[in-house]
Amino acid sequence: MPLYIRSIGIGVVEWGILSMYNAMGMVLFEWIWGFLSDRINRRILMSFSMFCTSIIFSLFTFKTLIPYFPILQFLFGAFAVSMGPTTRSIISDESKSKSIGFSMSLWSVSMILGRIIGPMVGSYIAQISSYEYSFYFSSLLSIFVALYTLIPLRGEGKRPHIEKGNSQSLIEGFRTLITIPQIRILFLLAFLTFIVNSSIRSFLPIYASERVGMSTMDVGILLASYYATMLFATPLFGRFSDRVGRKHIISTTLFLSSIMFLCYSLVKTPSQLLLVSIAVSMFTIQSPLLLAMLSEFTPRRLSGLSMGIYGSFEDLGLMVGPPIYGLIWSIYSPLSIFICSAGIQLFNALLIILIKEKEDVLGNMEI
Q: Are 345 and 257 a contacting pair, CB within 8 Å?
């Protein structure tokens, strides 16, 4: 998308504004999709949103619609984000309590693979044909996903609270969730951990290029190594969390992540930056484990709403993180953003320690 936007004459500042519209759509609608998924069939909901996404992909190819790109970006974020709370809720409903950490980790791995493979395929299609054909391909792929999601899985469980009717309003459901102390802390953790993630996504490539002197190819290898490590570490820690306990694994990895962020201050060479970034990636895998913990404390009839609100806090963290870190970079120093991330991760570890575990978990109850 960024390269296509630049190819049709839209500036960098305007692209930043378009990205903001996309993020706004995600923040405002993710919790709404979650709320709706507690009331209607989640597969129908996902199929509808993917059909709408396929239409939006095609509309981006019309040059006459350039003035309306902010609206299209907003709608794209609003519809595409529906896959988050709905798929997470399905995993929460269908996974056993002793394997939900591993299940959420596999979900996270699939998302990472999509972020890696998607740009590669889209760039290849654009190179051999045109950017427009990349959008057409994405549109066809969205239609395929929309049709595929309508196929029920063998042995898929039913949702009794849907059959009986869920009369609780959105506001009542939200109030029910925030009365649970553990869920309040987990929502805050979603916001803070994704602020930290934004320091890597938005600023590590710039830091590597401008401060350490890495070439464009070296930066690509750095990011590939970062995500490859995450692909390996995420399911590994997910399995450990099911056996050892999520609270212990999350607090330990957050503490180690804090230490690794501080190690950026010791980096002098590209190879050192690569090693530190791999270590940071290995211990910054808390998202699926936090989702598993959220599932355990959430009443089953509010699973979708809970996942949607959690996702909105993640999106909000990605929205506010870059401008905050950008100010820290310009006012203090580039290294300060990683020191700030270390402090946030240490605070997150303390928050996890404050969460009280229960023998009778709300997430396994029908309320």
A: yes
Per the listing, tokens 């959220």 go with 294
Angle at which helix 270-282 crosses helix 181-210, to 10 degrees, equals 170
Residue with tokens 């993630």: 197
- Residue 365 clears pLDDT 50, i.e. is over it: no
What count of other Cβ atoms lies within 10 Å of the Cβ of residue 137?
16
**What pTM value is reported for the model?**
0.82
Spatial separation of the C-alpha atoms in residues 263 and 246, rounded to whole Å: 26
- The DSSP result for 154-222, as a single string, is TTPPP-HHHHH-----HHHHHHHHHTSHHHHHHHHHHHHHHHHHHHHHHHHHHHHHHTS---HHHHHHH
Q: 140-175 b/e with 16+ CB inside 10 Å = b?
A: ebbbebbeebeeeeeeeeebebeeeebebeeeebbe
pLDDT tier for residue 203 given thresholds of 50, 70 and 90: confident
pLDDT tens-digit map of 330-351: 889 889 999 999 999 999 999 9
User: Which tokens hold the place of 350?
Assistant: 């303390």
Asked if residue 160 has pLDDT above 60, the reply is no
Spatial CA neighbour of 350 closest among 255, 282, 240, 285: 255
- Only one residue has tokens 């039913």, namely 158
Residue 202 in tokens: 């938005």
Per the prediction, the chain carries an average pLDDT of: 84
Average pLDDT value for residue range 234-240: 90
309/327 Cα distance (integer angstroms): 28
Interacting residues of 163 by C-beta distance below 8 A, sequence separation 6+: none
At 367 the pLDDT is: 38
